[in-house]
Each structure stands twice: as C-alpha cells, then as structure tokens.
Amino acid sequence: xxxxxxxxxxxxxHVCRRSDRSTARGALRRxxxxxxxxxxxxxxxxxxxxxPALAGGGFGDPExxxxxxxxxxxxxxxxxxxxxxISNGExxxxxxxxxxxxxxxxxxxxxFEPLTTHLLDEFGTTVASVPMTTDSFGDAAADLLWSRxxxxxxxxxxxxxxxxxxxxxxxxxxxxxxxxxxxxxxTKGDGTVVSTESLPMNTDSTxxxxxxxxxxxxxxxxxxxxxxxxxxxxxxxxEPRDLRLFITKLAENGYYDGVxxxxxxxxxxxxxxxxxxxxxxxxxxxxxxxxxxxxxxxxILRVDPSDEPIFRSGDVWLTxxxxxxxETNGIVVTNWDCPDCDE
Length: 343
Hints:
The chain is an alpha+beta fold and 343 residues long.
C-alpha cells in the first residue's frame, strides 16, 4: 500500500540529488567500480556542506533530552549524509496530519549500514524508533515509525499513557500534538546523526477517519465474541447522505476494482448495511454486529449510493492484512473465556 518513496527537500543536509544517485546506480550496473567514485564524491561534498548545520547544537533541551543529537557517539563526526523520505503511507509529507502514520525510507547511505530512525519531541525525548539496514545500493525500504500519531485505541494491553504519547482517541492526540514540531532523526550505530528532518503537526478536520470502535469513539482492532461491535466515523463532512458498509472475511489476495465482496452478516447479505447521515452530522457511531463469531474481518465502506457487492476504486478498505501503510485496521474476534464471570 505504500507508494514508491519520492525525495523530499533536505535543506542544508542535502547535497546529492536523487537523480544523481539514480545515475550512480546505473553506472554501477554498467561499470562496476563507478559507483564507488560517485558516492565517495557525494559523501565528501555532503560532509562539507552538512558540517556547519550539524555543528549548531542538539535537538530540544540538552539537559533533559533522551534522544540522539548531532555528533553523539564520539565516532569522529559525520562521514556520510543520507536522504530521508517521510510519508503517511499514501504520499510523501512535510507536515503530519494528526491521526496519520509516519513511515520512513532512506537512501544515499553506505551499503548494508545498520541505522536507526527516531522520532523526537521538542525536548529531545524519543517518541518512537525503528531500526533500518540499507541494501546493496545504500537504500533502506519504507518502514513504520509511528502508528496513527500515537493513537493506540482501547484494546486490551493498549497501555494508554499521554506522557508517552500513547493516546486512546484521535481527539486526545489532537489536543496534545496540534501545533507542535517534532524531529525525525537517523543515526548510525555509534549514535552519530546522518539525517534529520523537522515534522510539524496539525489537526485537519476535513480528513475523515473510519474505524471499528467500542461505542465511545475509541478505536478497536480486537473484540470478544460475546461483545457488540461498533463502527465509527469522524470528520464525515456534515452533508446528508447514505454510506454503505460491508463486513467481510480477511482478504487473502486483497481488494481491487472488480473483486466480489462477500458480506458476512446474515441480516444484510448480500447487501451492505446502510448508514444514514443527517444534515450537520460530522460523526457517527453505529452498531454493526452483536456477538460476532470468532474470526478476522475487514470492513469496506462505500461513499456512493450503490449496493453492488463489487469492490470499487473509491471504496475505503479497513484490513489487518498489511503491517505497513495507512493504519486502517480490521477487527479480530476471539472467543470469550472467563470462568469467573457470571453466566
């Protein structure tokens, strides 16, 4: 679900453009040792231009910060500068819409280099980290750094803790994060910083969010089979209209245009459930299944007025099938087993 990463402007740390590195790769394939010379030159120039920027000091509060800072590790300074790409799983971003995920990829480092990318708050405290190892061309594939801007929902074991940027609901995340600027920093094994980008965050009430919930607008991706499953929508626009919701088995091969949708709920099959929005309604929370059977389920939400059980390009697909990409989770239902509970 993650598109091929595109290069973002890298300010003073960016010297060698992506097109230059693509040319270098082509040279490697054709001439072998040419790659060494191109990357050596790019790395040398990068170090010269990056040195003044990195010498300016650390991130956040140097007294209380826990995250990496330029020059950390005492390894003799920066010997290469990598180009970091930040995306939300659908497009490259320079500003994070609160609720979106942070996905990072990297290029321009030495081959097979072990690195770690960190998300730091303004005080240098580490919010999230992900290890990355470059391939033979010095690139690291896209990986998930921060899921849904820290919205962990109300599943068992979610460990909600606002002080650790772990929020139950989107509203909680927006109240804490709106208007702040974090940093995305990549370090070598000895702590030396090789890439840094600022990441401002803002609330966008025009971006719709759809998810399974517990009836209190709190996201769920797990449920017991004797419980009630809800579906929640927020920022849905305020216009009167009907939405269509299919609940289907976890897709084995994915959904794309023309794939049949098998509705799992007998009271609706083969048609979807219709969710009616009134004028001025910007959110909804509806019951979609009472005591669902054990299993893994996807949701497909349709915003146009059609009951045809065929997947369309405009449909919103919520699934647990992918571990990366937009965090639109399906639901896992497990059997209830509580010997100490009343019948």
